[in-house]
Amino acid sequence: MADNKIESVLKEDRQFDPPQAFLDGAHLKPSEINALREAAEADHEGFWAQQAKDHLDWHKPFSQVLDDSDAPFFKWFADGEMNVAYNCLDRHLATRGDKTAIIFEGDDGEVEHISYRELHARVCRFANALKAKGLGKGDRAVIYLPNIPQAAVAMLACARIGAIHSVVFGGFSAPALRDRIDDAEAKMLITADGNYRGGKLIALKEVADQALSEGCASIETVVVYKRSGTDVTMADGRDVWWHDIVDGQADECEPEWVNAEHPLFILYTSGSTGKPKGIQHASAGYLLGAICSCRWVFDLGDDDVFWCTADVGWITGHTYITYGPTACGATQVMFEGVPTYPEPDRFWKMVDTHQVSIFYTAPTAIRALMKQGDEYPQRHALDSLRILGTVGEPINPEAWMWYRQVIGKERCPIVDTWWQTETGAHMISPLPQTTSTKPGSVTYPLPGIVADILDESGAPITDANAGGVLVITKPWPYMLRTIWGDPDRYKETYFGMYDAHTYVAGDSAQRDEQGNFRILGRIDDVVNISGHRMGTMEVESALVAHSAVSEAAVVSRPHDVKGECIVAFVILKNDDGNDKLASDLRDWVAQQLGAIAKPEEIRFADGLPKTRSGKIMRRLLRTVARGDEVTQDVSTLENPQILDQLQAKGS
Ligand code: WT7
Fold this sequence. Notes:
Distance between the termini: 33 Å
Shape: globular
Helix content: 25-40%
Number of helices: 21
CATH class of the domain at 529-646: Alpha Beta
Structural class: alpha/beta
Strand content: 15-25%
Bound molecules: 5'-O-[(S)-butoxy(hydroxy)phosphoryl]adenosine
Radius of gyration: 24 Å
Strand order of the largest sheet: 5-4-17-16-18-19-20
């Protein structure tokens, strides 16, 4: 592929209308999308009420739509009762019982098709087992599993009995798992012995044991799914095998009818300060967002094969594996492995094998696969594809064009979906039936989502291409409800900048002349590595927890595959920095927080650039980390000589 040709094309600001071939087969017609937009603009609450009636099955119908009497603590459909697992499973049994819900492909290539009837039975059996183990409505269960169907089963089983799950990504380390268990005061941990990813063993139970060896006093039961067959230690009276507790359980389990606002799950994500925040989502509103976005953005229909390559440990996996596709009664692919194992054509091979029609992945994966060369996708026909999606970080136009041309063969609209753990589901994205797409642009807010860009005083920025703070100015059903155990932090973080109706996303954005949104990046101390959020403060705390370190400052710099990577400036207590210590510190951070937090580079120095009032000048460190020329005013630096040292270390 001629890269420079693509680059030059982009400078022309190209725009692509929905391809005719796509429109011919689309489930939603442009007129239906236009009607949705009009209805939402005419009556925000009425629109969402109608969607909630059309797309959710209610045990007890709601009469109230939005309750904003205690803003920013919003409630939606608050007097209604329903059950999320019922909406994802039971309601399909009459018409889609034998339809495949999940096509699972393991790391080693094993394939399993699970029907809706079978998935329902598995969820019921596991739900009964959880109840027998004393897990009940409102109790928290932490799920620390590989990306295998049992993770979705465990989540749906919790939802069925009204327990609140908190999934912790399998790549997180023992201290990170422990912190999350402690913060959620979870009664149960659901994990596996281990699994293989890219042919490498991940010893989940061993990590879980480490986490449980200190703290985690709330844990009463550990359920272990046998996946790798690895030897594990089972603590007497605490640890039980998944297969033992489901043995003999009934295939039916009456759903626990919960209030629409009943917490469905907590999912931890990084913020700019302190420990990760437990983002708490409600039941009905969250599921509604998952369903509507699957229908509108992915045009998801009964004949599709949907594949979201995320791990269930992230919000993307929650919404676009466990909940959205199942609530829509769709067939989806779930994959345990990595894109480059055993060969860099794994994704493309799977697209053909399973005839995937909607494919959703992250820019970091697209860039990594693009680097491998076009020969890998070219080995496969890829003609089942009809929509390509991307999420997690800004996608560079070059990768966007490659995705469109080499994977989508210019037949498939690209949906670049902006959203967050907090927003629950897509917020700003092209709707493939009507939106003209632009490389690097997330285009327009979804129907029923009202986004704006404000300056510091709260005035909307109307100038084209001027950057500002991205906000959502009306509550939406699938928004987070609070931060678990910390309502003040919720209020302060998301509604502290302007007022109680203006949600501050933490990103900056700009609009072009046509009003297309483009996301510029975070406005806080959060970095985005391979589409995953990490707080620079978390990495700094991990570094200073090491016995050799006295002080650390962490910034990011661009990385051609990961998007961003971490550069840490470290002041040691007495040693001189050397390569061995740098490598030990990188491993240390990975052990403390997980591999995604591992600094790309450690630079040792005698001090950090500080203002006379003692504030670390992070902007300056960012410039230095990027190897750019320092043009900032350094006259307020308390220790200007440190600058030469920091720069010298980088060369
Ligand atoms: C942050 C949210 C939403 C699932 C994955 C990440 C960035 C997300 C895009 C996009 C540009 C994006 C933002 C956002 N982000 N999608 N399409 N274009 N940036 O969820 O871990 O909660 O991170 O990811 O900075 O705030 P998350």
